[in-house]
Every structure is written in structure tokens, then in C-alpha cells.
């Protein structure tokens, strides 16, 4: 049975902060953010956009692209680490906003940035096991990454969502969930206590934990596929908290194979996957899938029919290295989504506007916000302790 990603959708907030502007405001050399970290712009969600609205917009685009009706979805999972409620999952809000039918398994998964990959693997197995009975899965990765003003993590924030329609005979990427390399380790590299909206991170340690995880997961993958080397992949997409991290990951992977020039293959195998992430920042669960989207949308090389390697990392930690085959026609399908125009339509915030949004977000859960519902899904505020949203269906 052939299973994998049939279609995808991407959502980014309607505003962003330019990292050159942020660097100047923080008294930092802009080259540190632009080249040292590899990020140019960071998505910033205004108060009427949140994890739910981003998820709903990405999911809506994915369903349209696949031409799948809401009642064809039998499994709807949202992977997120920035959920909006301790009990009611983001997926239930998405179900309502999109009109997904009642005969559907609907829930949320959490394991830092790995939560979406956990859901994807589960969906692939659900189809292979025969439980789908012809229905499709909708896997949505949605997050708002926040470390807070003036922190070392501040230039590695971001916001966005990627939705994947997962099915039999996929039209984008065929995947084999029986041969994936895994690595899990109980570490305190990055966490967000229940009482905090901002994440805490042991930054340099988290980089080392990520590198240990890719080494462990890739070694496991190579045991499952003896003889495979990094040269067997036309391209590689990594989890991208910031572009430089993907560069470090690639070097680590190549060094495991005693490559004497571990950076030499970076431009050909990895660079295209970083074009979109550099404009959006870290989107946590969706980060790897935005890198994959970027690869398919911007690679000048023909990837159709080629094998690509994928690495997912979630702090805490759990990681997975797996491979997929690009289905002929996939690049054209992703290019047709018009993601460049989506990014160009965003509004640049001044540093004062950015800081005001960051501060106001603390109160946005309880104070109804003035929503601009003109173009789709919006958060309206909280009434009687219930979050309310508006969408095109309402
Ligand atoms: P920092 O201490 O501010 O920066 O923290 P730095 O001093 O390490 O500099 C960063 C890079 O810029 C270095 O490059 C510098 O040399 C360079 P490197 O040595 O690494 O190649 N640099 C310059 N380059 C050009 N011109 C200059 C200049 N100055 C310096 N003038 C850090 C950086 C990433 C640690 C911080 O931003 C942070 O803590 N971020 C959040 C944590 C993070 O993203 N960790 C990544 C791994 S963990 C992960 O990916 C999981 C995660 O997504 C969460 C989840 O799973 O849910 C985060």
C-alpha cells in the first residue's frame, strides 16, 4: 500500500517583524540575526489570530488543494505545544470552523516540536492498518513561538501552521512509517511551565541536545536501511528553529559518515528548504513541514521521483529521521499554492507595534479583541470562559 502526504496548506500571521529592525532595537549587529542565525523575518500573530485560527487557515488550504470534502476526513489531529486550553483541544475548534463531520476521531498531540510528526506517523499507520476504510487524515501543526522581549531566544520566535492531508496513493510525498529512525531522551533543554506563556530554554544546551538527537536517530535509520548514505538523498529537510541550526544538523549528519567536507553538500541538498523558514521564523511543530514545503516550492532542481530525508526534533526530547519519495508533479502542485504571495501580503510591524502586541498577548485570552473577520478565521475573545471564533462558514 502506498501512503503519504497528498496535499498541504500553510498559514502565516498577517504581520511580521524584520530582524534587522529588531537587531537595531536590541543594540545587536544585524548580521548576527541575518547570517549568524539565518533568519530575516519573524511571523508575529496579532491579537485576533492564534494557534486555532492559524490551524484552521492551513487546514482549509490543504483541503481545497486536495479537493477533499470535510466529511471525507476520518482522523483530525492537531500537533501543538501552544494550545489554547488545558482540556478542549485545538482540533475541536478546527473541526467546528471547517465543518468536519461527527464520525471522526478528533484530538490534539503534544511533544514540543515533535507533536505533529507523532500525529503524522499515527495517521500513516491508521491507513496502513485498514482503519481508515478509504477516509483521509488531516494532520495540522500549529504554534506561536514566544520567548519574550529582550531574551536570547527572542530572534528565534515565529508563528505559523502547516496542514497535511494524509492518504493512500498520495500526490506529494510517499512515506514508509515502518523504517524510521528514532531517538528519545529525558532532557531539560526547552520547556514551558503551565503558568507561563513564554518558553524557557537552555539555549546552547538545546543545540547540543538537537545534535545528539539527529546523530541517534540517523544511526537508528541506517541500521534499518543498511548501506544507505546521505548521498542517496536528493535533498534533506531538518527541523528549523533558525536556519543555522539546519546547517549544524547537516554537518553532524555528514560527519557521522566521515565526510571530509561536511558543508560541501549544503547548498545542493538543504538550502532550498530554508527559503520559507527564513521569512517566518520557528513555527515549532510545523517547522519541518514548512522546510519540506520550501524544498518543493523553491528548489531549482527537479525532485520529482527523488528520495528526500526528513528530520523532526522536539525538545524534551523525541526525534525521528525518515525518508520519503517525491511524487511526480508534487513540485508543481506546491508551487501552485502561491506561498510567495502569501508572505508578501504580510504587514511589517514597527518595533513599537511588535512590542505592544507581545505585551498585549498576556491579556488577550480574557479581553475580547477587535477582530477583522474580512479574510477568514479570527479569534473574537473570551466570554463566560469560552473562546469564540469567527470563520467563513459562520
Ligand atoms: P546567542 O547566545 O544569542 O547567540 O544564542 P550565539 O552567540 O550562539 O550566536 C549565534 C550565531 O551567530 C553563532 O554562530 C555566532 O557565531 C553568530 P555559530 O557559532 O553557532 O555558527 N554571530 C554572528 N554572525 C555574524 N555576524 C555577527 C555575529 N555575532 C554572532 N556579528 C541561541 C543563540 C540559538 C542559543 C538562542 O537564540 C536561543 O536560545 N534560541 C532558542 C533555542 C533554540 O532555538 N534552540 C535550537 C535547538 S532546540 C530546538 O530546535 C527545539 C525548539 O524548536 C523547541 C521545541 O522543540 O519545541 C527550540
Give structural notes.
Strand 10 (190-191) and strand 11 (200-201) form a beta hairpin. With 394 residues, the chain is of the alpha+beta class. Strands 1, 4, 5, 6, 7, 8, 9, 12, 13 and 14 form a 10-stranded mixed sheet that branches. Strands 3-2-15 form a 3-stranded mixed sheet. It has helices at residues 19-26, 30-37, 51-66, 90-98, 115-128, 203-224, 243-256, 266-269, 277-280, 287-298, 330-335, 339-344, 351-360, and strands at 3-11, 15-18, 41-44, 73-79, 105-109, 136-145, 158-168, 173-175, 181-184, 190-191, 200-201, 235-238, 307-314, 318-326, 347-348, 378-383, 386-390. It binds 3-hydroxy-3-methylglutaryl-coenzyme A.
Major sheet: size, sense and barrel closure?
A: 10 strands, mixed
**Which kinds of small molecule does this entry bind, naming each only once?**
3-hydroxy-3-methylglutaryl-coenzyme A
Q: How much helix is in the residues?
A: 25-40%
User: SS-based structural class?
Assistant: alpha+beta
- The number of E-state strands comes to 17
How many helices does DSSP assign? 13
Task: State the end-to-end distance.
Answer: 39 Å
> What Rg do the Cα atoms give?
20 Å
| Assembly context of the chains | single chain
Nearest-integer average pLDDT: 96
Global outline: globular
Q: What letter string, H or E per element, gives the SSE order?
A: EEHHEHEHEHEEEEEEHEHHHHEEHHEHEE
Uncertain runs are: none
> Beta fraction of the residues?
15-25%
